[in-house]
């Protein structure tokens, strides 16, 4: 995932300036970002404190990325096929019969 140029503290500070009445165009020019970024931040982090934003970021980073698990078929002692899925819970394998 792409690393953000702005920390959670900076994002919350920009949003607080916006809430205080600063114009979006002025904020975007000052911080070198687009208005779309400002409104995306507002949708995602609006009303949060810095600690809340950090907690949200940590939860997003802990979630495995989509498509990062591998599937393979294994045969057990009988003739039944077992689907083994890796990467669902942090590296533990889960089998589905």
Task: Show unreliable segments.
Answer: none
What is the average per-residue confidence, as pLDDT, rounded to a whole number? 75
**How far is the first residue's CA from the last residue's CA?**
33 Å
Q: How many strands, what sense, and barrel or not for the largest sheet?
A: 3 strands, antiparallel
**What would the principal axes of the Cα set say about the shape?**
globular
CATH architecture of the largest domain: Orthogonal Bundle
User: What fraction, in percent, of the residue positions are helical?
Assistant: 40-55%
Tell me how many strands there are.
3
- What is the highest CATH level, the class of the largest domain? Mainly Alpha
Number of helices: 4
Total individual domains: 2
Q: Supply Rg.
A: 22 Å
User: Which sequence of strands runs across the widest sheet?
Assistant: 1-2-3
Structural category is: alpha+beta
Note the run of SSEs as H and E: HHHHEEE
The oligomeric state of the chains shown is single chain
CATH fold title of the largest domain: Arc Repressor Mutant, subunit A
Strand content: 15-25%
Q: Please, could you describe this protein's structure?
A:
By secondary structure, this protein is α+β, with helices and mostly antiparallel strands. It has four helices and three strands.
Question: Secondary-structure map with pairings?
Answer:
Elements: H1 8-19, H2 24-31, H3 35-45, H4 50-62, E1 70-75, E2 81-89, E3 92-96
Antiparallel strand pairs: 1-2, 2-3
Task: Give a summary of the structure in a few sentences.
Helices cover 45% and strands 21% of the residues. By secondary structure, it is an alpha+beta fold.
